[in-house]
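Minutes, project check-in
Item: structure for the 383-residue chain
Input as provided by the requester:
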Amino acid sequence: MTHSTSLVHDQNIPKIAIIGGGLTGLFTATLLEHAFDKNEVSITIFEKSRSVGRLATRYRSGNDTNSDKQWQWDFGAQFFTAKSAEFSAFIAPWLDSGLLQPWLAQVVDLTPVDSTAGTPNVEVKEQWDTDHARYISTPKMTSWGRELADKLQQTTIQFKTYVAPLSQYAHLQTDSHSTGKQTELFDENGESLGHFDWVICTAPNVQAMEIMADSYFSKYSQIMQPKMLACYTLMLGWNDIEHLPQTISDAPQWDVAYMQDSILDRVFIEHQKPNHEQLLPSITIHARNDWSETHVDEDIDTIKSQLLRAAQQALNWNDDTAPSQIDCHRWRYAATIIDDKDQRLGILVDKDKQWIVSGDWCHKGNIESAYQMAEQTIEAILK
């Protein structure tokens, strides 16, 4: 994989552009390389940020007494499943290496107190097992995305690159069958990014709309069929185990809590995950998607205060057990909602232009969906 410089390629091999270096983009590039023999495909991923994978991790260094430790929060996707045989086979090498591991979490239902009196109600819900495994990437969720990128051999990744809407330069597009150069992409400054036989957009659907606007993409009207909801994430840290609040330290011991009667949705105890024992006590809390969407444009400090009040009602801390680290993040496009759950969208293909719009939001909005949409993309290209 080359991170910033272009590779020299034979002019006759297929040239494929992937807009977006999230997991859908990385899975697509990986499966394309598997589908073509060595050096028979040229792939370029254009990623607007400075990293790949979209499995977000945030960390902070410990205080003076814990200078060798840190807080760590996987504040995006917490885990993923592998229900299909194809995806199970795909992840097997990383399970063998230990980079991916099953998370056998103890799950509870948690109902917070509605006042300063009383204690939250914690009821055991289920134990995740290997038969219905949830997987995590270690030592952090970003590790897998970086490993996927590092293993790419015929793919160039250009970071901090914004691809301009395709409509802006539609008059410069030429016929692929006569010249081998179907679509010329440009950055936001009008600089050419090259000519490509296939262009695959894996951005969230709102961003895909912007990229494809006025481009005469034949499936344009379907891009906004799935609705994407926001999610606020609260990240909390404590200096040591002894100062954790009562709801966490008392029995029953748990790893994941499904919240009841709260603006919060789920609580995850980071330092109890596999290979996370070296962390300072770290808790990640996702707010409900419907609540987050309603408040998506509000001031982040106001949101953080509301989430903190809800978290205190759930975890039941006092002055002695209050968190010492507090952070908050807003995801604008976090959850995928499709009205008819039996009619998933699937990738959108314009065969004439050889453009594809893809992403986990085209299916169920999870990590396995990203892989399944990558599979559909390779099938469309090979046809």
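Outcome recorded: Residues 4-9, 174-180 have pLDDT under 50 and may be disordered.
No further action items on this chain.
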